[in-house]
Every structure is written in structure tokens, then in C-alpha cells.
Write a structure and sequence with these properties.
Elements (H helix, E strand, L loop, with lengths): L22 H12 L7 E6 L6 H12 L10 E7 L10 H15 L2 H4 L1 H10 L4 H10 L7 H5 L1 H6 L4 H15 L18 E7 L7 H12 L7 E7 L1 H12 L2 H11 L2 E3 L6 H17 L6 H10 L24 H10 L7 H9 L50 E8 L2 E5 L15 E5 L7 E3 L6
Helix pairs in contact: 1-2, 5-6, 10-11, 11-12
């Protein structure tokens, strides 16, 4: 245990094994958060494109934070995981965040331990209408505050009324206190040398642009909250693009972020040889694992002696940051199962591509060759998954138009539906509503897949 943890994050790359775990970086960020001399509120931005390991790194930080105890150097850290992209209504972001915090407190046993004190606190506060209603719901046996947040009067006032602010501060103080005594009545303010609430906002860049701003504006409401730390994971260019559209200009976007984020960290790019080694190991594991395959898929694999994608060794067939191609439906299913996921149905795929407004393309109703890799782009091969940031779908999905067709789990007789179009296809075929089909054993050089997961 170091005597004095660093105040800043080193940008010196650390040698990593083919699994490229982020232990060194995770420890540095965790130390930064847990070091009691680092004052709060504090916002840390972990920036990087899709696939750069932001979520993996953030989860590694969470794991390390759970191991800290309050001592002469460190403070207790209570992590909360928040995925803003899951919430469709922009105005519900603050409510959803607070509910996630309360649910984490409840799961940790706090609400049950201090039930009577919550009631006393609500009674003792001035102007108790809002707090009284919330405290009733929090102490009802399960934390379900949907009813409370659904009422416009509470939703509109929640971030600003002084009695709620005090109620929230005292709850956080009790939650992060190192003392066994609950402290709700005694603590008038959070002591961030004892502990902090750490909110991880994952995949912010998957949100539609208006929601990105709403999340950032919600975080600004906590900017005067002692004891609160936010860790934001996102592609910086996506955030700045959303801000520029509102504030007109790159300079204004940078100023906006500078006012919110105090510390930034960009995971270093993993060297391509190392990525290649890791991916090769993944492929070997997947193709040898019979449990990942359907009965017919395993029989086909063994009969055809398939041990890797058809284009695996072609110079332009499978690059580390490009979609995999040359895979049958059987292979796509096997990978998805190996990863703990599944293939999406075509209905799920179309919803992810078009959003809820029925747009023609992921970005809108007019075709734009600058927003996807189709025939009009005249590239003639696959491109990196994150190349077309301006072509994101409403839910933040890359490459829902062009690059490669994608297998779905939807079947029609002997065929399976594929969606999205590819680098080889023209305007009409990359529309979000267009559908085609493929034989489940075919291994095309312009067909890949993406995974889905049921929450």
C-alpha cells in the first residue's frame, strides 16, 4: 500500500498480457478516487472509441474500489452503476439516476438499517411535502419510487428544492460513513474524507444526442455535492458532437466539458499484434468448445472441418477493428453463446437501427454517403466499426447501415434473415427496413453479425 497515492493519472503505457487486463490503470484511477485528500465533487472522463475497453476498465475500477476501507490514506467508496442509454425519456434521467442510487443503497442494506431515522428526518425537515412522500416510498419495504418520480410536481422540483437537497445529503452521509452509527440525524454534511458515492455512467455515447446533453446537465446538478464522484465512459468525439450541435462550435463544446470534467483518461490503444494474439485465442477457444454450438452446428463444423472464419487469413478479410466476415449462422450463434449473448431477432435489429420514429436510415430520412460504408462510398471493403460516428442510430449503434450484412435469429423456411446491407450494396439496400436472406451454412465475405443480450 503506497504511503501517498498520486493526484494525477500517468499516461505511461503498461506492458499487458494478451488478455490486456487494465489492472495498472484501474488501480491508479481507484487510488485517485479513494485518496481522501482529493476533494469532491469530482468528475472523471474515461474516453475512447467503441471497443477500446472503457467498460472493462470501469468495471475493474469498481472491483478495486470495493476493497478500500477508511484509514489514514483512503476513504470508503460506494459505487453505483448507471446506464443512461436505457432510459427512453430524456426528462427521466435525473429520476432514473436517483432511483438507481436509492436501489444501490437498499441492496447494501442501508434503507433497512435506517428506516426509522429516514422517517424522523423527513418529519424534521421544513417544507416536507416532497421529502415526506419520498421517505414513505423508501421505507415501504422495497425501493420502488416510480410513483413518486412519475408526478410532474416532484420531477420538476426535485433537483432544486432545498429540503430534498438536505434529505439526499444526509442519506449519502449515512451511506458512506465509516461509523457503524447510521448518522442520518447527526450528520449535517457529507465528510468526504470518510467516504464517497461513486457513480459510473457507462456507454454515454450510446445515447441519442439530446439525451447525452441531458445526462451531462444532470451531472451538473451534483457539482456542488460534497461526497459525489462521477466516472463517465464515452467516445469523446460523440459527446463533443452533441454539444456542438447545441452550443454551435467546437470551442464552446470544449468549454462545456472543461467545466464538468476535472480528470480525463484515454486507455492506450492496444498494439495490433497483441490484439491479433488475443483474438486468435478467442477464436480457438470458441471453435473447440462444443457447449457453445447447437447440435446441428457442431455436426456441420466437424463434417466441414471448420476451425476459423472463412476469410480469417485473408489480408483484408478480418482486421482487429473491423467486423468479422466469412461466418455462417452456426458460427455466429456459437460466438454469441460463448460471449453470454445471442443473435438479435430481425425485429430487435430494426428497432435498434430505426429507433421509435421509423426513420429510413439510422441517422435520418435522407441518404448520405458520408455516414456509412456502402457502394456509394467507393471503398470496396470493410471499414473500422467506429469509422462513421455521424451515422449512429438513435440508440447509439454503429454500422446499422452498410459495412456488412448481419445475421439475425429470424428464420424463414431454410433461410435466415440478414439485415443492414454492406460495402457492396447501394442506397436502397442499406435502408433500415430492407431485408434479405441467407442459407445458414453460407459464409459470405460481406456478412457478419452483432450480438444482443436480454437485460
Amino acid at each position: 500500500m503506497p504511503e501517498t497515492p498520486t493526484f494525477i493519472i500517468s499516461d505511461k503505457p503498461e506492458e499487458q498480457a494478451p488478455g490486456f487486463q487494465f489492472d495498472g490503470y484501474a488501480k491508479t484511477i481507484a487510488d485517485l478516487i479513494a485518496y481522501k485528500k482529493n476533494r469532491t465533487p469530482l468528475v472523471i472522463g474515461i474516453y475512447g472509441p467503441w471497443g477500446s475497453g472503457k467498460t472493462t476498465l470501469m468495471k475493474a475500477v469498481v472491483k478495486k474500489l470495493c476493497g478500500y476501507e477508511s484509514d489514514d490514506i483512503f476513504r470508503v467508496c460506494k459505487p453505483v452503476w448507471f446506464q443512461a442509454w436505457k432510459y427512453a425519456e430524456e426528462d427521466a434521467i435525473l429520476a432514473a439516476l436517483l432511483e438507481e442510487i436509492f436501489k444501490t443503497m437498499e441492496a447494501d442494506g442501508l434503507i433497512g438499517r435506517i428506516k426509522s431515522e429516514i422517517e424522523k428526518l423527513a418529519t424534521g425537515l421544513q417544507g416536507q411535502k416532497i421529502v415526506g412522500k419520498l421517505s414513505q416510498l423508501l421505507t415501504a419495504g422495497t425501493v420502488d419510487v416510480t410513483e413518486f418520480f412519475a408526478e410532474p410536481e416532484y420531477k420538476e422540483k426535485l433537483g432544486f428544492v432545498s429540503e430534498f437537497q438536505e434529505f439526499f445529503d444526509r442519506l449519502v452521509a449515512a451511506y458512506v460513513s465509516k461509523s457503524e452509527h447510521t448518522g442520518v440525524i447527526d450528520h449535517r454534511a457529507v465528510d468526504d474524507t470518510e467516504g464517497v458515492l461513486v457513480v459510473f455512467v457507462d456507454d454515454l455515447d450510446r445515447c441519442p444526442k439530446p439525451r447525452v446533453l441531458k445526462v451531462l446537465e444532470t451531472i451538473k446538478l451534483f457539482m456542488d455535492k460534497t461526497g459525489c464522484v462521477f466516472v463517465i465512459g464515452a467516445a469523446q468525439e460523440v459527446i463533443e458532437s452533441a454539444i456542438r450541435e447545441t452550443y454551435q462550435g467546437r470551442g464552446e463544446a470544449e468549454k462545456f466539458m472543461d467545466k464538468i470534467v476535472q480528470v480525463t483518461f484515454v486507455p492506450p490503444k492496444i498494439p495490433e499484434p497483441e490484439i491479433g494474439t488475443f483474438i486468435a485465442k478467442v477464436v480457438q477457444d470458441q471453435y473447440k468448445n462444443k457447449d457453445c454450438w447447437s447440435e446441428n452446428g457442431w455436426k456441420w463444423k466437424e463434417t466441414e472441418r471448420v476451425n476459423e472464419p472463412a476469410s480469417w487469413n485473408a489480408p483484408e478479410g478480418n482486421q482487429p477493428d473491423h467486423p468479422v466476415v466469412g461466418v455462417s449462422l452456426y458460427e455466429a450463434e456459437a460466438y454469441a453463446k460463448w460471449a453470454g449473448k445471442r443473435l438479435p431477432t430481425e425485429q430487435e435489429w430494426e428497432r435498434a437501427a430505426r429507433g421509435t420514429d421509423g426513420r429510413v436510415y439510422p441517422w435520418g430520412d435522407e441518404f448520405d454517403k458520408e455516414k456509412c460504408n456502402s457502394w456509394e462510398a467507393d471503398i470496396g471493403r470493410t471499414t473500422p466499426v467506429t469509422k462513421y460516428v455521424n451515422g449512429l442510430s438513435p440508440d447509439g449503434c454503429y454500422d446499422m447501415a452498410g459495412n456488412v450484412w448481419e445475421w439475425t435469429a429470424s428464420r424463414e423456411e431454410d433461410f435466415f434473415v440478414i439485415r443492414g446491407g454492406s460495402w457492396y450494396d447501394a442506397t436502397q439496400l442499406v435502408r433500415s427496413a430492407f431485408r434479405s436472406k441467407g442459407m445458414l451454412t453460407f459464409r459470405y465475405d460481406n456478412v457478419g453479425f452483432r450480438c444482443a443480450k436480454t437485460p
